[in-house]
Amino acid sequence: MQGTLYEIDIRSILQLIEQGQRTGELLVEAYPASLGSPDKQEWERSGELRSSESRTSSGVGQYWLVFFVGGKIVYAADRHSSSLIRLRDYLHSHRAEKAIDLLQSSSLATTNEPEYAYLWLLLERGAILPSRGRGIIESAIEEIIFDLLGLRRGTFIFESGDAIAPQLTALEVAPLLTKTMRQLQQWKQFHPYIQSPHQVLLVNNDAKLKSSLPAQAYGSIARWADGKTSLRQLSRFLNRDLLTLSKGIYPYAERGWIHLIDPVPRRKQTASSGSNLQKGDRAPQIVCIDDDLSISKKVEYILVERGYRAVAIANPIEALGTVFQLAPDLILCDIAMPQLEGLEICAMLRRSSKFRQTPIIMLTGKESFTDRVRARMAGATDYLTKPFGENELLLLLEKYLNWDSYLK
Question: 27 — alpha (psi -120 to 50), left (phi > 0) or beta?
């Protein structure tokens, strides 16, 4: 099941998955996967897209992943989940965020959802209680559904697959939709002073704000109104409902004492040199071919955040045409894929003089001597065993790409 949000809305998609008692993952993007598609060009000309619905300044668009088991939602992630920012936010109010740094990535379960894996490891180590773990997952799901139901333009694809495991909780779609639709109606009351949960706070009139608020409340606002902390992050830090928090801030935003603005995008660092790539510089082009949507999109996000140009391709049949069109500087390709195996793709590319010297890194779900031999025979340059961390990925890219040549 796939399509655009012109054809069907998110609410109907979720209801269909629930009614069919489907197990798998739903990927929703706020822009068409093809940069040159007519729909994308039309949307950009319309000027109607909000920051949460458009291609971000880093070059990678917003996307969401929702995981289902038997039609119930068991986990949901967005483009920030792999960096553990969201999990750290949730753990902040319990002074447990530093526990993440004590965990060894090698101890993680074999999952490519880092946030989910770290959360389970925290539970196993006794750093948080199961009730808190369930609360974090349920809050994360509710946040994602809130964002998705407010989305009007985008593309989606649902793929049946194995259930994400282990499972800590499962939410029924119908009551969640009812609750979230009611929240969205209440949220509209805050417009135009508060428009997005991703907006950050700035104090515009410190004297009036200080005289109108209790000392503790003023101290909290003054601390987090730093132009960096979003309204949603603040609700996580304070362990308070987003609507309740926004309702408390709204009178002061209406008077102009507090401003809520879209966050200023961070400047990205290159993977190796640490220097900033200026707009127009030819950053290395990377293509990631993996039929697992969660992996390919996370790789794309990680690389674009570090200054690379990256494209995720989930369909191995379409991959060859796209690769020949883009002529990337490096290719990441999963071995085990339906329809067309990754080793076949590698061998086909090697038969073309265009890709004789292009580094091709094979992604494998198991580290075995046989896989390594088969990869080498197909012409692979190297391989990376899943699940892999961000540092492993970046170090391997540094090994085969020379940043200096792209900065000249």
Answer: beta
1-23, pLDDT tens digit by residue?
A: 888 887 888 999 999 999 999 99
Work out whether strand 200-203 and strand 258-261 pair parallel, antiparallel, or are unpaired.
antiparallel
Closest CA to 80 of 271, 248, 261, 301: 301
Amino acid making up residue 226: D
- Per the listing, tokens 């965020």 go with 97
294 lies in which domain range?
285-407
Residues 351 and 374 in one domain: yes
- Is residue 29 classed exposed, middle or buried when 0-12, 13-18 and 19+ CB atoms within 10 A define those classes? buried
Q: Please name every residue paired with 76 in a beta bridge, in sequence order, or none if there are none.
A: 66
Q: What is the pLDDT of residue 201?
A: 86
Residues 109 and 84 in one domain: yes
Q: Are the beta carbons of 400 and 359 closer than 8 angstroms?
A: yes
The structural domain count of the chain equals 3
What six digits make up the tokens of 164?
């994400």
Tokens of 274: 């640490």
Task: Select from 153, 182, 211 the last residue of a domain.
Answer: 182
Q: What is the mean pLDDT of residues 395-401?
A: 89
Check the CA dihedral 236-240-246-248 and report its sign.
negative
Q: Are residues 20 and 106 in the same domain?
A: yes
